[in-house]
């Protein structure tokens, strides 16, 4: 088992005391991100606690709270006297996480096969509303990707995503029936770091109900995400409509003063 000398280069900058999220939640999100991007690999030992505290400018109490939660989540394992390790194989059956991971990564973590039915993959000029969301000029070419997402051939969600085409010009040639959107972005040198999301319950409309195999009016959960990179540059916006009975979000709540 190998031990990295440090986390990713931008790890220190990722922990922001001025953010509303508690520091231990930020540490959890950071380590999940390092694992998702391959900086930390299964079986790898994390740097010593003292070194991590110095890198991230946090206390040992804050660090241990985050690491203990990651152990509970099945992301890390602890070995007494030896340190903290990335779990060899994430435990199946966990709920969808509160960390930023792709649908494909979630499926792999759950031990399920992910696939998509591509409904639309095209480039169109940004409307006024779309331009405002992404911080671009109206008329800027946006890549529109609309898919039905499936786990083991069961339709779970309808995903509509938009991003400036210039960020990843190669997306138009990717077969998204099997390819991961996040992996395609990574191949283009684009790495999502954080996403602000809202989730609300709705009644399914005709098109969504048909795609998800629901009766019209059945409950769905609509999640809207706006993703940015580490420099806070807007990357993409997504509207993901989940079949209400097939999706569960796990999150953390912390009391702050």
From TrEMBL:
Extract the SMART domains matched here: HTH_GNTR, UTRA
What region holds the HTH gntR-type domain?
21-89
Q: What SUPFAM superfamilies does the database record attribute to this sequence?
A: Chorismate lyase-like, Winged helix' DNA-binding domain
Q: Does the keyword Transcription regulation apply?
A: yes
Gene3D superfamilies per UniProt? Chorismate lyase-like, Winged helix-like DNA-binding domain superfamily/Winged helix DNA-binding domain
Pfam families in the cross-refs: GntR, UTRA
Q: Which residues cross the membrane?
A: none
Q: Which UniProt keywords apply?
A: DNA-binding, Transcription, Transcription regulation
Protein name, please? GntR family transcriptional regulator
């Amino acid at each position: 088992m190998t031990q990295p000398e440090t986390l990713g280069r931008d790890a220190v900058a990722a922990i922001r005391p001025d953010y509303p999220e508690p520091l231990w939640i930020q540490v959890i999100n950071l380590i999940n991100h390092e694992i998702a991007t391959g900086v930390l690999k299964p079986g790898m030992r994390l740097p010593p606690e003292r070194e991590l505290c110095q890198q991230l400018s946090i206390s040992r109490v804050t660090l241990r709270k985050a690491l203990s939660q990651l152990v509970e989540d099945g992301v890390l394992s602890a070995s007494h006297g030896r340190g903290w390790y990335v779990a060899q194989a994430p435990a199946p059956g966990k709920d969808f996480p509160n960390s930023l991971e792709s649908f494909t990564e979630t499926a792999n973590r759950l031990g399920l096969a992910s696939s998509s039915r591509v409904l639309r993959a095209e480039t169109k000029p940004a409307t006024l509303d779309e331009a405002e969301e992404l911080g671009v000029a109206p008329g800027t070419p946006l890549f529109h990707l609309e898919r039905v997402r499936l786990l083991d051939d069961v339709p779970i969600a309808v995903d509509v995503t938009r991003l400036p085409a210039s960020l990843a010009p190669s997306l138009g040639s990717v077969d998204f029936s099997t390819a991961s959107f996040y992996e395609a972005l990574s191949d283009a040198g684009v790495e999502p770091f954080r996403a602000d999301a809202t989730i609300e319950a709705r009644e399914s409309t005709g098109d969504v109900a048909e795609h998800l195999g629901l009766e019209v009016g059945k409950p769905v959960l609509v999640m809207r995400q706006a993703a940015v990179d580490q420099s806070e540059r807007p990357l993409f916006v997504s509207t993901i409509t989940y079949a209400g009975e097939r999706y569960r979000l796990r999150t953390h709540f912390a009391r702050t003063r």
